[in-house]
Design brief:
CATH superfamily: NAD(P)-binding Rossmann-like Domain
Structural class: alpha/beta
Radius of gyration: 17 Å
Distance between the termini: 39 Å
CATH class: Alpha Beta
CATH architecture: 3-Layer(aba) Sandwich
Strand order of the largest sheet: 3-2-1-4-5-6-7
CATH topology: Rossmann fold
Number of helices: 9
Strand content: 5-15%
Order of helices and strands: EHEHEHEHEHHEHHHE
């Protein structure tokens, strides 16, 4: 599949972790991938070179998803380079934990700006621009089901993303565009493993009946399904990919 004929997927927050695994998988599936990053240009460029070296097509795009002008420019760049956009994977997000009573305004505002407003900014552009047959795949979290202490603000942003997922799927009636969300459980990324003791990691791994942490590739497989032809009849859904945790 040449770069001129392949479908185009924008993956936000794709320089590392789950986003990078998604970019690699969609490139293997034949998509031209736009690797969005906020600050880590080196990781994004390394990933793009890795994808190109294995025969895929990749472009890096710096944009803070919390900035609507930057998100618009990213979509403009993808359309200029490739003629259009077919898939949005809304993966960029931050997680900082604190009890609600101890949460300061800065933590609240930053989490809302990136996780909720950032997802909205990209959904809004995709809702206007995606080609017929397109896919919008948002990221939620299984915390919306487990509702663990200290995750209050983070869970609230993702619950908002889930609500917008259901509603946007209805608003795009008649355009053959599906809108779904993937809600991972504990997944072995640097973000998740940071500052956790081996004992805590082991405990979290054993919470699901399958008794292991998810791997980024497990989540990328679900995104691949939703982005590909076999996922075309799934619309307005939240798929919890967590080994049976909740």
């Amino acid at each position: 599949m040449s770069a001129n004929t392949s479908k185009v997927a924008i993956i936000t927050g794709a320089s590392r972790g789950i986003g990078a695994a998604v970019a690699e998988r969609l490139a293997r599936d034949g998509f031209t991938v736009v690797i969005n990053y906020a600050g880590d240009a080196a990781s994004a460029e390394t990933l793009a070179r890795k994808i190109e070296a294995t025969g895929g097509h990749a472009l890096t795009a710096q944009a803070d998803v919390a900035d609507p002008v930057a998100v618009r420019r990213m979509f403009d760049a993808a359309e200029t380079a490739f003629g259009g956009v077919d898939v949005l994977v809304n993966n960029a997000g931050v997680m900082q934990l604190a009890p609600l009573a101890a949460t300061d305004d800065e933590l609240f505002d930053r989490t809302i700006a990136i996780n909720l407003k950032g997802s909205f900014n990209a959904m809004r552009e995709a809702g206007k621009r995606l080609r017929s047959g397109g896919r919008i795949i948002n990221f939620s979290t299984s915390i919306v089901g487990t509702l663990l202490p200290t995750y209050g603000v983070y869970a609230a942003t993702k619950a908002g993303v889930e609500a917008m997922t259901h509603i946007l799927s209805k608003e795009l009636r008649g355009r053959s565009i599906t809108v779904n969300a993937v809600a991972p459980g504990p997944t072995a990324t640097d973000l998740f493993l940071k500052d956790k003791t081996p004992e805590l990691i082991d405990h979290l791994a054993k919470m699901a009946p399958l008794e292991r942490l998810g791997q980024p590739e497990d989540i990328a497989n679900v995104v691949s399904f939703l982005a590909g032809p076999d996922g075309g009849w799934v619309n307005g859904q939240v798929l919890r990919a967590n080994g049976g945790l909740v």
